[in-house]
Amino acid sequence: MLTTVRAKFYFLYICMALFMAAVAVAVASFSWGKYSERQTLLEEYNVFRLSTKAIHMLQKERGLTVKSLFRPTPSNINELQLWRAETNAAILKLSNTSLSREISGRQIMLRGLSDSNAISLEDCFLEYSNIIYEIIATYSSDKSYEHIQHDHLFLSLMNLLMAREHLGKIRARISMSAMNNFLDGESQFYVKEKFGFYKISKEEFLKSLKGKYPGYVGIVADDEKVKKTEAAISLYLDGRQQEFDYDSWFGMSTGAMDVYYSVEGTLVDTYGQYLKYEKRKAQLTGLLILCVTALVLLVSGLFVGRFIKSFSARLENIDDKMRFILRTHDYKIEITDQGHDEISGISNSLNSLLKFTNQLLEEKEKMASTDRLTGVHNRTKFVDIFNSEFQRFSRYKTPFSVIMMDIDHFKIVNDTYGHNVGDDVLVEVTSMASKIIRATDILVRWGGKSLWFWPRQASYILP
C-alpha cells in the first residue's frame, strides 16, 4: 500500500493531523467540561441564592408570627400579613424546584394553624425552624447540588447562613421572653447555646474569607448593627434584664440579620460574575483551540501538499530520466533540478556518475575500436564504418572508395632488426599517412603490415 514516497508522506501527515486533532479535541473537551461545570455551578448558585432569600423571609416571618401570637395587635397582624406576601413572592421564585412544593404546602398549613391559634407558640417556632433547616440541609446532602457542595465558597456561605439562622432563633427566643416580661432559665440556656453556635459559624465564615474576600471580613466584623446585637445578647445572658431594651430588640436583631443577608447576596453575585467570566473564558478557549487547530491543519495541509507535490515531481523527474538512460544507454544526458537541497545534491551526484560512466564507456569503445600500436581504427571499427557507409551508398548512391596499402619487404625488417623496429616502422608509416589524408577521411590498420584508406565522397588518395 505505502509503496511510494508520496504515500508515506501523506500517511505520516495524516497520522500527525489525527494526533493534533485528538489533542485539540481533548483540550476542547476539557474546556467544554470547565464550561459545563461553571454553567452548572452558576445555575445551582442561582437556586441557592433564591433559597437563601426564601430562608431570610421565613426567618422574619417566624419572628413576626411569634410577635403576633403573643401580642395579636392590629399593627403586628398587619405587619405579618404584609411580610407573608413578601415570603410568598420569594418562594414563588423557587417554583421550578422540589423545595417550592414542600415549603408551600407546609407553610400554608402552618399559617392556618397559627391564625386559628391551633398551635402553641413553641411548636410554631419549632415548625418554622424545621422548614428552614430542611432547606439548608438540602444543599448539604441532596445530590442535585453536588457541584456547589464541593465548591470552596459554599462552606463559607453555609457558615454565614447558619450564623444567620442561629441569630434568628435567638431573636425569636428573646422576643418571647420580652413578651412574657420575665427571664426564665430555660430561655437563657437556649439563647446561650445558640449564641455559642452563632459565634462559631461567624468565626468560621470570617476565617474562610480572609484569603480570597478580605473586604467582606471588615463589613461583618465592623458593622454597628451586628456589634449592638451581639452586645445586647451578652447583656441578656448576663441577666441584666433591667438594662435590656426589649422594644428595640426585634428591629436591631433584624438589622443585623439583614447585614448578613446583604453580605451573602453580594458574595453570591460577585462569585456569579466570576463564574460567568470563567464560563465565557472556557467557551472561548475551547473555540479558539478548535479554530487554531483547524487553521494549522489547513495551512500545514496546503504546505505539505505543495511540498509533497514538488518533492514527488522532482523524484519522478530523476526516476524518468534514469529509466530513459538505462533504456537507451545514452549516458550523455544530464538530470536537471532547480533546487538547492538534498534532491538537487542527489541529481548532481547522479550527473557526476553519468559523466564518469560515459567517459568509461567512451574509453572502452575507443580501446575496442583503436589499434594499440598505431592509434588508428582497427579492423572491428572498419567493419562497422564500412557497413554504415555502404548503407548510405545503397540509399543515396553516394560514391566512395577504399584504398589498401601494404609495406613491401616488411618481414626482412622484422627478421633483420627485430619486431620493435618493425613496430616503429608501422608507427612512422601510419603517421606519414595520417598527414596526407583529409580530415574527413578514415585511416584503418587492417592487420600486420596492411593499411586501409577510406576516402569519402568519391575522393581517392593514391599511394
Descriptive keywords:
single chain; 463 residues; mainly alpha; 3 domains; three-stranded antiparallel beta sheet
Can you offer a commentary on this structure?
This protein is 78% helix and 3% strand. By secondary structure, it is mainly α. It folds into three domains: 5-142 and 150-291, no CATH class; 329-361; 372-454, 2-Layer Sandwich (Alpha-Beta Plaits). The radius of gyration is 56 Å and the shape is rod-shaped.
Topology:
Layout: H1 5-70, H2 74-92, H3 98-115, H4 121-141, H5 146-149, H6 152-180, H7 185-209, H8 214-222, H9 224-237, H10 246-328, H11 342-369, H12 379-396, E1 403-406, H13 410-417, H14 419-436, E2 442-447, E3 450-454
Antiparallel strand pairs: 1-3, 2-3
Radius of gyration: 56 Å
Strand content: under 5%
Helix content: over 70%
Q: What's the mean pLDDT score?
A: 82
Domain count: the total is 3
Please tally the β strands and state the result.
3
Describe the sheet with the most strands.
Answer: 3 strands, antiparallel
- The string of secondary-structure elements, in order, is HHHHHHHHHHHHEHHEE
The structural class is mainly alpha
Number of helices: 14
Summarize the structure.
The protein has 463 residues and is mostly helical. The chain is 78% helix and 3% strand.
